[in-house]
Amino acid sequence: MDPLNRNYFLLKPFLKRSNFRAFYQILSTIIPIISLWLITYQTINYSFSILAKLSILIPTVCILSLLSARTFSLMHDCGHNSLFEKRGLNNLFGFFLGVLNGIPQKPWSIDHEFHHKNNGNWEIYKGPIDVLTLETYNNLSNKRKLFYKYSRHWMMLFPGGFFYLVLKPRLGLLLIVCNFIKSITQETFIKIKTRNYSALLNIKSRIKPPFSDYGDNFNEIFDLIANNVLVITWWAIMSKLLGVFFFLSFYSLISTLSAAILICVFFVQHNYQNSYASKSKNWNILEGAIYGSSNLNLPNWLNWFLADISFHSIHHLSQRIPNYNLKACHEANIHLLHKSKFLNLRDFPNCFKYIIWDEKNEKLIPIK
Q1: Taking the CB of residue 336, how many other CB atoms lie within 10 A of it?
Q2: pLDDT in tens, the chain (368 residues)
Q3: Whole-number Cα distances in Å, 72 to 6, 78, 97
Q4: In degrees rounded to 5, what are phi and psi of residue 356?
Q5: Which H or E element spans position 276?
Q6: Adjacent-strand bridge partners of 354
Q7: Separation CA 170–CA 162 (nearest Å)
């Protein structure tokens, strides 16, 4: 039996979505988050000793970071239209969960869909850290080689996480506004003078800034603006309640840790020894799902916080399977996944060595 024949996989029974289970997942995540923020408020505003406050705040940061990672994972499901039964509910709650994470859900989901459509094709999709080809890397100066190596070190998960959730969506909006103003002030007169009136209607060229994932269409722009308005409003309210310095520090720490967890998990699920790393002409989407997506052997409690995204081969095989069905689907098809990659927590550090794509031999390799 050929395990790469999609028809051999038992998927259909696990495609069924349940609004009850989806709402339960949302409530079982949001209620603890609200409770922990209330505990934080009480801790800050009452005269506990410094030691007592730290004994409460430190575990609170850890749990809120994990819950934030869970809200991101649920938002991810909404982007795949797999959490709730109807697309409208997935869009609504996806946007709401994006606000909780500080990231616009629609632009993120569109980019993530591109990843799913090209997983394992390293000629098109370079992973979350823009992996260089071996030839490109060898042509770099020694200084740029060192920069590339250390900028992809696992320690960069923390500043990278802070940038990804806290800064990038705000900078994306700022870039769009600046680009729009620049277009209006510098280009409109020229277009009128040359009677190029149709170009005045090219709004996309006015709002799409360089080096930004945002602004590809009006839906993304609306989502970006609405997300930023609500996120900044939430920041302002919480800063008033908890103090500006404390809240921004506390919030930034939580966002940094949760994003570091998520980026780490995403990285090790695609960058590892013998990962499927094909060119376009040899690429097969099914091989990309089975051989280009690792499965993580994690404790059950950690899987809960990650909404079972550790069963990743099945997720790439069918992204419409809800997270609450992934484990059962994985177990039902385990006999077809014996050639898939399985990683333990202790294997994670080794994955961060595989940051070069050897396009000639179609594999990921470490820097020598």
Answers
A1: 20
A2: 455 778 889 999 999 999 999 999 999 999 999 999 999 999 998 877 888 889 999 999 999 999 999 999 999 999 999 999 999 999 999 999 999 999 999 989 988 999 999 999 999 988 888 899 999 999 999 999 999 999 999 999 999 999 988 888 888 888 877 776 766 666 655 555 555 545 544 544 444 444 456 656 677 888 889 999 999 999 999 999 999 999 999 999 999 999 999 999 999 999 999 999 999 999 999 999 999 999 999 999 999 999 999 999 999 999 999 999 999 999 999 999 988 999 999 999 999 999 999 999 999 999 88
A3: 29, 10, 7
A4: -130, 135
A5: none
A6: 366
A7: 12
Grouping H, G, I as helix, E, B as strand and the rest as coil, residue 99 is helix
362 torsion bin: left (phi>0), alpha (psi -120 to 50), beta (else): left
103 phi, psi to nearest 5 deg: -130, 135
What's the pTM value of the predicted model, to 2 decimals?
0.88
Please provide the DSSP assignment of 157-191 as one string.
HHHHHHIIIIIHHHHHHHHHHHHHHHHHHHTHHHH
CA angle 9/15/21 to nearest 5° reads 135
